[in-house]
Amino acid sequence: MLTVALGTLRVRWVSFLGTVVALVLAVAQLTALGVVLTAVAAPPERPPHRFARAPSVVLPVDPRWDSAQHDLGVRSLPEARGLSRRLLREVSATGTTVVDRAFYAQLANGPVKQVGHPWPVAEFGGYALRDGRAPRTGREIVVAADRARTGETVTVLTAAGPGRYTVVGTVAPASWEDAVFFTADEAERLSPRIDALVALGPAERVRAVVEAGDGDGAGAGAEVLTGAARHRADADAGTDREALDNTLTLLPVMAAVAGTTAVFVVASTFAFAVVQRRREIALLRTVGATGRQVRRMVRAEALLVGCLASALGGALGLLGTRPLTGLLVAMDIAPPWFAVELSARRHVLAPLGAAFLTGVLVAYCGAVAAARRASRVRPVEALREGTVDDTAVTPGRAALGIAGLAGGAGVACWIGLVAPRTVLSPTAYVVSLLVPVVAAAVLAPLTVGPVVRVLTWPLRRLPGPAALLVRQSALTSRRRTAATAAPVLLTVGLALSLLTATDSLGTARDHGFRAGIGAPYAVVPDGTPGFSPSVAARVARVDGVRLAAPVLTTVYLPDGDGRLEENDGLAVHPAALRRTTRLKVVHGSLDDLDEHSMAVADRWHMKVGDRVRVLLADGGEVTLRVAATYAALPGEDVAYLPRRLAGTGLFARDGLVRRASLSLAPGTDRAAALAGVRAVLEGSGARLTTRRGLVAAGAAQARRLTETRQRSTAAIVVLFCFVAILNTLLMAASDRRRDLAVLGMTGATPRQVLHFFVAEALLVTAVGVTLALLAGGINLLGLAAALHQLFGTAPIVVPWATVGAVTAVSGFLAVLGTVLPVATALRRRTRALRQVRHDA
């Protein structure tokens, strides 16, 4: 049967063209995502920058700390404490040792990621003076030549407050860091913690000193880095890790959703191609071909088409890896330096092979599932099977669709009633949205009839036979109608579910954030990561101003298994917290907060009255009583700590205030007080905003990554489905010669024929959109229940403009895919008739 299969492909290549196109796109998509994902999982080692010229570096580390599982800026306890002065003395005994400190230091109007260092470590990063000299006093600095000129007096923002410094020298800009260099004494004043040591003595002796200190505490939590390992001390190591983590989170979601969509569309397309050839299969059965031979022929066709299309798709996917990588970098998901080396076999062979096998398997399974039913036709029924469009659905497909629909409804109910926090995890939630939509596509042949009758019911009384013809054409060819409506269903259903979930979750977060703000004004960073507590103190001294300025830190709490778990903490006055923040208290009361207690999130599983030993980042320890627990979402849970701890040097971050809530005392002149606040904030790296402005800024920052993930996934799926719509309809229209002939014999003009096919395409689109709305409704019901549990009153926000645009494009493609082949056939028939008349 292989010879027959080859002959069929050679003669009926047009019937298989749509299958090949869909399969090529599917394999290309899976190949590109797989290659990029493999490269992200095993990125190339980057050379060290900050300590490239240092023989060895002593860095505080925790060997049990997996930085990939923590947010950027969170440090392990040893990193937060820094290296001990005792270890500094012992390492210094081995040879010359230079202390490095890394801290927040940003020139006014400079980039957010600027960092301060002591000048003595500059040479180990390859810095050299371009002009001027090294700093000698506490008010002198050296900066990159593109930031300021030698001799200028500039404002530098630090955790200690804004300060005026004179630029006494400049260095060449570095691509991996934007540094501001101070004298060693000024750096120590601004940041007492020792972040690293550059040891110029013999590396073996340095390592021996550090390892010998592990037992008595001098070198505990420290490690000696040499060679390529020194990159771990670079300023961009953390941001690179976060970017790669975001990429690793996004790509599997995109691959899972897009892959599932591709698999279904390709399988449906190939099955439809086989259904179009029922007459050929029927004739083979009539001349004596057995069912086994028919199945073997179709399997051979599937393997040939699958191998050809998968090979082309793999090559196209390899070419698409660079544009995909560029897109990830442009969206600020992957780090700027990230690139895929196609010459690296470990990055290419495995995903390319997996995508190729997936393509062949999809083609094979899609063809076999359709051929099995045709091969079971008895020879005496073969001709009838070849001329009648059987609308029955196999029991297996019906069972699969019903199970998928029930499973989708069950998952939606489970998320809405039992596990509402699932909607906050794009990785898990996006995949769950697929189930009802794909299940509805599987059941399309069963549901097409009722949907067509409902949609055409209002058109029964229209004059003329057009509406009746369109209705009956769709009803008598339900398999074709279902196959052409399925891509529209997938496109609109997934766009509706994904985009509505994204916008609704963002709006719900906004409502929750707004409900938690009790002050009409706020002081927020202005082009900076935060502002100094000293600035907040000056604002609080303005007449009539009441300010709550919590300082972000990290505290380390026991997790019950003998280990420490890091958590965000906000050091704030209890009275200010009660006045400006509206927490959903679950147990206890904020009125019980004092200088010896704290409020924690209820998901931390602590009870009111518990006395908890809290480790501070400076190595100190304090025992605090749990005064209240409050409801908080993942990523928004913090411990509210006594303000007195803000002066103990506990900061594991940078000691900056991220946001301060501001209100006015009764009887205060509002205009005068706000003018005084703005005057204080001038040049401080902070600005005054209203509650509405605060909500808008917080919402944009909180939802950026989630929206990027879900919208990127939706874009890939929708684009693939657009191609599938056009592809499937072109295949269907190419099989409509009989309908064209019948309409011509009944006297229909070419214009009327075109109108008929356009109306039928619009009806197919309407069927797909209707089923998409029904399937998407299941997802939206679960989403609404989950958001209600998480945020209380939370509206479902449907982006009607975007969904409407997707629907309009789907309809346009459906009409285009129908009109093009029909118009071509009509032109050929017209030319043939003219030729006959001319010959006569």
TrEMBL record:
Keyword Transmembrane helix: yes
Subcellular location, record wording: Cell membrane
Keywords: Cell membrane, Membrane, Transmembrane, Transmembrane helix
Annotated Pfam families: FtsX
Signal peptide residue numbers: none
Main location: membrane
Annotated ranges, domain ABC3 transporter permease C-terminal: 253-377, 714-827
Membrane topology qualifier: Multi-pass membrane protein
Membrane-spanning intervals of the chain: 250-275, 302-321, 348-371, 398-417, 429-452, 713-733, 753-773, 780-798, 804-826
Family: Belongs to the ABC-4 integral membrane protein family.
Protein name, as recorded: ABC transporter permease
